[in-house]
Amino acid sequence: MLLLACALALWLLWPARRGTLVIYSAMGPPGPVVAEFEHETGLAVRYVNMNGNALLARIYAEGRHPGWDVAWFVGDAAAAELDRSGLLRRTPSGSGSLTADIDWTSDARKMLPVDGSALPTGLMVAGVFVTRRTTPAPVPDWAALQFRSGTIGLVSPALSGTAFPVLSGMMAAVGGVGPGHALLRSLLGTEAFVAPSNPILLRALRAGTVSLAVLPSEAAFAAAARDPALRVTIPEPAPLEPVVLVVSAGAGQAAVQEAVRFARFLLEPRGQALLRAQPAEGLQWPVTRDATVPAGLPALAGRRLIHPDPAVWGAQEANEIVWFRRTQDGG
Amino acid sequence: MTRVSILAMSALLGAAVLLPVLRFLLLPILPGLAPAFAPPTASVPGLGAATLGSLLVATTTGLLTAPPAAALGFFLERRRWFGRRLCAGACWMALLLPGYLLVAGWEIVLDASSWLASPRGHIGLAGDWLLLVAAMAAKGLPVAVLAARIGWSLLPPALEDATQVNLRGMRRRIRLILVVSAPIMLLTFLLGFDQTIDEYGIASVLGQRLHLHLLAAEVSASLLQWPVSWPRAATCADLLVGASLLPFLMRWRSRHGSAMPDFADPRSRRTATFGGRALAWSLFVLLAVPGLLVPVLALVSDLRAGPDWLLSPEGARGLLWSALYGLVAATMAVGLAAAALAGTADGTGRALLFRVLPLFTLSVPGIVLGAAFVVGYSGAPVPVLDTPLPLLLAEVATSLPVGLLVLREAMGRRLRMRGDAARVHGVGLPARIERIHAPPLLPPLARAWCLCFCRLFFELPLAQMLAPAGREPVGVILVGLGEAQRLRDEAVLACAGMGMCGAIVLAVALAVMVARRVQ
Question: What ipTM is given for this predicted complex?
Fold first, then answer.
């Protein structure tokens, strides 16, 4: 009987693969989007939610034998690196018909990779300043961070998937790697607080341990919506970062078709509306003209926006994270 | 099952475990062994700080825990006192409490924001290290106590009587006691050192929070965090294996290296004096309060902080997956241990079991096994990383020594002789198992199974590295909740998990009781 129970347990533990769209996601719990997609298309989805870094590590570990069809995460730099390793399926615009008829916003259009290896589903400002309303409002300038009194809080890019876009955005905003290193060195040299995750940094900010936290806009605006005592300041220039959806190079033809259906569903007005309905993960600027900006997000029009080059920062990612860790350790 | 099939299965399992481990450990010197596809290599952080940090923390923890552990081990093994069984039970429970839950419980107590989430300058670097050593000592003390108990069980009780009769002066007696207890202290220190250097839960959660790098956490960081570097993970694993092997080799050379415990007959224990009882209770408090009571009570008390008692669907699924992994792996580990013990009478087979297996278990911690499997089972010829097989195999491999230790005494020679007698009288194998072997073996088998199951239920880091996506057991979800600072959800899930483990152990105990009555 025990052996039968073991056999049953093994059967239950074996992940269902056939006829299922497997999505590796760093975008939080599935929410209504996945349920609605399943309902509308009749397709079965295995939605696997994990930390951004763990997601990328798993994709690399699975390598040429991927267990996933679609991956959904923050940052086109990481997508560019996956593409360079040959792990993504390319669907060039026009020929693949994935992006041809979509009414992109001008900001989103600039982020479409030429080879069609990634598809933006939302836009974020990679790094914004979060402060308590009881403290003076920060100067919306990256370089001014080093002159602000009190502890500056950052998230370690080695530990959090959304932290490297913050780092690359910050460096791109001040003029590249050299000036970026100088700014970070001055921040880390003083009493900076480097947290392992966004929630821990927010907790330190609320506790007063940190006077200013640099966080991705999604986490920052979600926290400010829950806690009116927090203030979000968008710095100038504001580094834009897309949330991207990529398709595995190892996905079969049927899986590719399903992946395309999922991508299109996300980009349709209803999909975009469902995305916005998610409490934290939905606080992104839309990528299509027919979707509305979620309440609580300021308009980006009129702001000075930059987009860190994904090819450059993707190639730099590992080196920059190691540099950050060494500098943080005082090396 | 014939002896040949047992041997064949053992050889297959051995190869499935050993080959990926050897390949992984040899990667730094033989890069040609790397899989055809590997993550892009980049500059990676050095391992000097992590190696030094691990050695320092392990040595300090070993030195801190050895004296109290040796004393408490003595009281558990050699003295009769009210609370001895309670203390032994608490010791096992503290041993089973995962390091990450110990940190989570203390985090609730200290209300993290003001302490664990403080910048380094707040308590200083020395304070950070002390905090880490304190947590490691709280987690390492139960292991050290069990090691000390084994040490005391190996000394003949007559030696104690002889000192009382022949040595009159207190100073001479104390000196002799110190000489006699030195090997036990050494054994305790070495196992405490080993446990600390391999401890993953505290190294990854608290070490990460305090930015203190330790080898155990660096292995997984090289595989699961950015930049991913398999060669770095392999180098780190080599260092970890080397550091773990050091104390084992020292122990191997000592007199007590290969001996197995022979716990004293409870009737032969002397009653502890008043002073002895007071000391024993103080040591019990030192073991149970920081390492078990405070974290568990903190998790339980956190349930009262809000009205929402419901488990998230993700948490409920995690409990189910944990129970299923535990069921399969514990059953396989205990079955294999029993088969191996039954199949190896004396000589080479037994020596292999009790010399080589502990060497493997002590020197190749779970984190190295997990990392080796990630690299070994990700590509050709066996790309099975997206199935539960690698995790189950690793869990069986790490639980096998536990099964052997618990079953060793019960599956002794007497039992085999009974089986031999029945065989001579022509009793068939099913009848032999049902009527002769099973009845006396049921309680120890159930004990071994429960121990393996509870250990595997909250297991990390194997689950973090090897669980197929979407089938993550409860340990992975708990660490994720801790990272997201959803401490209340973490407490609810941890308590539900502990409750589930308790209920399953109770059900197994009841089933064994009923089965014995029926027989």
Answer: 0.79
